[in-house]
């Protein structure tokens, strides 16, 4: 875990310093309208995920959604502003953890209902193998997203404020006097 923690710390530091993503247009977004970028991309992906989740609920769709949210978290960390890194932590990491834990609870409930139905009727409503594989998937996603959120929280508490944050730009209260 120490190697993973060190790699995540390096990635977060590079994002805060503006060295993680060096594309010209991205650096322009970082300097001029980072808040708009954060809001627009977050809510666009949230709408897309909602449509995708309503249309079908397969394990492949769940994995695609988590990959897209992971990429967005990487972009937010690469943006390096105070707000973008906090949205990566609270808006993506914490929400992913909560959704994964609720999904674990849902699969456990479906396993229990499946077992009860089998005892009453003699047939399974859903495949036990599929439910167990979903349980393993959601437990792994819960662990990864919880770890990411905890490490990002630790980094943001220990690190100085990011570039472009109001904490850096605004003068301290004692300097205004």
Q: How confident overall, as mean pLDDT?
A: 85
Enumerate the spans where pLDDT stays under 50 for 5 or more consecutive residues. Answer: 165-177
The amount of helix comes to: over 70%
Q: Please tally the helical runs, counting DSSP H or I stretches of 4 or more residues.
A: 7
Fraction of residues in β-strands: under 5%
- Any idea what the shape is? elongated
| Assembly form of the protein | single chain
Report the major sheet: none
Q: Any idea what the radius of gyration is?
A: 20 Å
The tally of beta strands, per DSSP, is 0
Termini, distance in Å? 47 Å
Count of separate structural domains: 1
Q: Spell out the helices and strands N to C.
A: HHHHHHH
Content-based structural category: mainly alpha
Describe the fold and architecture.
The model is unreliable at 165-177 (pLDDT under 50). This protein has helices spanning 2-17, 24-32, 34-55, 59-79, 82-121, 128-158, 166-169. The longest helix is centred in the middle third of the chain and has 40 residues, at 82-121. The chain is elongated, with a radius of gyration of 20 Å. The termini are far apart. The protein is mostly helical and 177 residues long. The chain has one domain (2-163).
